[in-house]
Specification:
Blueprint lengths: L24 E12 L2 H9 L7 H14 L1 H4 L10 E9 L4 E12 L4 H19 L7 E11 L6 E2 L3
Antiparallel strand pairs: 1-3, 1-4, 2-3, 4-5
């Protein structure tokens, strides 16, 4: 069976997918990523000594706000009435990084993968922005979908 890209019509032009005939179901997506940094930078963040304030709290809030704006940022992405978005930024001293996890939930006709991925991306960018004055070598990495549930395809677990 040949798979086709859903956002392209038969002539290869971009189009918004028609989800009108799909059933509303509970849908969940979890995404993860991280911001690698110098150990000294991470220590400043953990101790709350960054000049711009609470880096982790700001990043978590920014991630939620980003998820809510996903359809404004990604062409052809459906606007969703999100039930919940949760973003958790966890310092990882052993890895000299902040690990980010976002969970997005909706009852709707299309999935929330893009919202979860956007939440992680915006949280990571916020960490970078707030800490760049002391560490220009930070790297955003491994932003990925790890799990999704609901809809026609059911549960997909890419990692625990």
């Amino acid at each position: 069976m040949e798979k086709q890209l859903t956002h392209l019509d038969q002539s290869g032009r971009a189009r918004m997918v028609d989800v009108g005939g799909k059933a509303e179901t509970e849908r969940i997506a979890v995404a993860r990523g991280s911001v690698q940094m110098q150990a000294e930078t991470l220590q400043l963040i953990i101790e709350g000594n960054m000049k711009k304030g609470d880096v982790l709290g700001a990043a978590e809030l920014a991630g939620v706000m980003g998820a809510k704006r996903t359809s404004d940022l990604i062409p052809l992405c459906h606007p969703l009435m999100l039930n919940q978005v949760k973003v958790v930024c966890t310092p990882n001293e052993a890895g000299s990084r902040v690990d980010i996890e976002a969970t997005a939930r909706v009852t709707g006709k299309t999935g929330v993968e893009m919202e979860a991925l956007t939440a992680v991306s915006i949280a990571a960018l916020t960490i970078y922005d707030m800490a760049k004055a002391v560490d220009r070598s930070m790297r955003l990495s491994d932003i990925r979908l790890v799990r999704k549930e609901g809809g026609r395809s059911g549960a997909i677990v890419l990692e625990e």
